[in-house]
Amino acid sequence: MWGTWPGAASGGECPCAGMPISMLGPPLILLIAIAILYGLAPLRALAQNWVLLFTAFLPALAIMIVLNNVAEEIGWTGFVFARFQDRHGPLRAALVTTVFFWLFHVPSFYVETRSWATTALVLGIFLLPHLGSRVITGWLYNSAGFSVLIAGLFPSIHNAIVNPTGLVAVVGLPQFEVLVIMAGIVVLAAAIIAIATRGRLGLKRSSAAGAAT
Q1: What span, in angstroms and rounded, lies between the C-alpha atoms of 16 and 145?
Q2: b or e along 2-12 (b: 16 or more beta carbons within 10 Å of the residue's beta carbon)?
Q3: Structural domain count of the chain
């Protein structure tokens, strides 16, 4: 029910196999996307600002992993998603978890904007990306043998990318533009995963009963 850490996956699977996808997939896909959209300028900025990878991006990522997203995913994925998945299947579980995950962000968006109209607009814009992130996180969780650590690495790397002191600073692009690009990448990747797995999100049918234990 609560998920597992690496090394505790059932069925002899190695959940660490999902780590390269969680950690390397998002930044590599983003770099390809911005090279297509902006040409080589962001890549030149990356080469010039490579020191920021160690002084800005990696510290931001470490903070996300240790203090933020992995701990959050114990609740969002290891508890909420896992319980709904046991009862309603993976895709519906991702949809329901998205509702709670989306509403969870209402107070923070309102505090930042001080406007309910702007908050509603921002939440509307990020509804599909939030759904996409839950689909991807659920897929990683199931594919890694119910590992909340592997599931938590994806939002950690995502937030470290879009953080103003993270990869945004390294490539020298406006934060909002990187947010929009990452939102599109997340939605597209989630759609591909949902279609490719036929809504199972990496959950083996023989594992459905074991996810609750």
Answers
A1: 9
A2: ebbebeebeee
A3: 1
